[in-house]
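Students often ask why we bother predicting the structure of a whole assembly rather than each chain alone. The short answer is interfaces. A chain on its own may look different once its partners are present, and contacts between molecules only exist in the joint model. In this exercise we take two input lines together and write out one structure for the complete complex. Read the inputs first and try to guess which parts will touch.
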Amino acid sequence: MAVTGAILVLYLIAHMYGNLKVFSGQEAFDGYAHNLRVLGTPLLPEHGFLWLARLILLASVLIHIYAAVSLWLRARRARPASQRYQVTKRVHRTYSSYTMRWGGVLIALFTIFHILHLTVNVISPGGASDSPYERLVNGFQPEFWFVTLFYVAAVIAVGFHLRHGIWSGLATLGVNQANRQPKMNAVATGLSLILTVGFLLPPLAVTFGLVS
Amino acid sequence: MNITLRVWRQKGRDDEGRMVTYKLTDVSPDMSFLEMLDVLNEKLTLESEEPVAFDHDCREGICGACGVVIDGEAHGPERTTTCQLHMRSFNDGDTITVEPWRASAFPVVKDLVVDRGAFDRIIQAGGYVSAPTGTAPDAHANPIPKPDADRAFDAATCIGCGACVAACPNASSMLFTAAKVTHLGMLPQGQPERASRVVQMVNQQDAEDFGGCTNIGECAAVCPKGIPLDTISQLNQDLLGSLGKGIG
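Now the answer. The structure tokens for the assembled complex follow.
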């Protein structure tokens, strides 16, 4: 869970970096996308690096989901529905730790939509295009405000998932010591905030006409 | 004080169980929670009803026998054991819900009494040190750094009450096991079995059907002995360290 989560967090950082290229114009953004496709050539075949990354990501996601489902099932067995408390009270749990499971399901569904939308371009509000930049700009036009809204909601869900996920991953990997907890919390909150804002900027910029 | 109690009543392991409401008048705010239950039981006995069964022993907060979930919190609103909780923590006219620890690994025996034998089996799996016989060694033969001694002692204050399991949304016993692993792992006497201890104890808690830890922290927040959450990271560290040593 922690290791695959760490791989996905590292990927998100790279993904955010690529997204922010949108502010440097179409050439920079499309050039970055093209460079990803030819990264490592001629040592690797064209698209070689990309598919390698996709393979690692897919494996990480599947293992992450497998671990989550087995934890979920174990928790259900450890306290079945028939043994639920009549009264429960939140003592320490946070909104983010409490929404890890259903939040994770939402993020998985969003990821599928996101790939169909901007990667494969099967779903193409505003028109399909070979240029990743145009796909992005077409997809988040003001008349498709509901697409933007959906992305905003999903990215915020990812932010909450990361807030507890980064903390929990560090603890699982044995980093948690009493004197390190303020730092761990700062890293978890800081990184999830940076990623949330970084992912929110491009679609919002398009919707509000800052990028066209 | 006038108190309305909603108490879990269950005749035996196979009984379905239900919440029953009792009204108590003239409860002194200086009574402990268990004394208030004693008063209820006296009243029930006089009315020829079955008294409410609950676990208790020292009533000093050091044995770990008592423990119920009060208004959704293990051991109630104060960070102490149920026996050290007093009625002054409640208000006149309150309705208080009292439930047993809830976990498959802690089956209800009767009313508020659960079988915590699963904890004993986790200890049997690895919560010990090899004790060479012979004369007692010199007290200063085995120097232990003060921070290690302190950490071992803090972890050793666990009384095995089970509040961590009761409060965990996953019904995981990780804080309990981690306290034992940290307690013994910090001391030189605990080193020979350090790697095998953590593997055996974790395997045993899995076999007992406790849930998995997701680092939410409810356990440490309700622990009457303040066992720190970072013991769980110590357990994870030891578990990682035992990988590849052929222990299983």
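Check your guess against this: The beta strands of chain B are 3-9, 18-24, 69-70, 73-74, 95-99, 108-110, 113-114.
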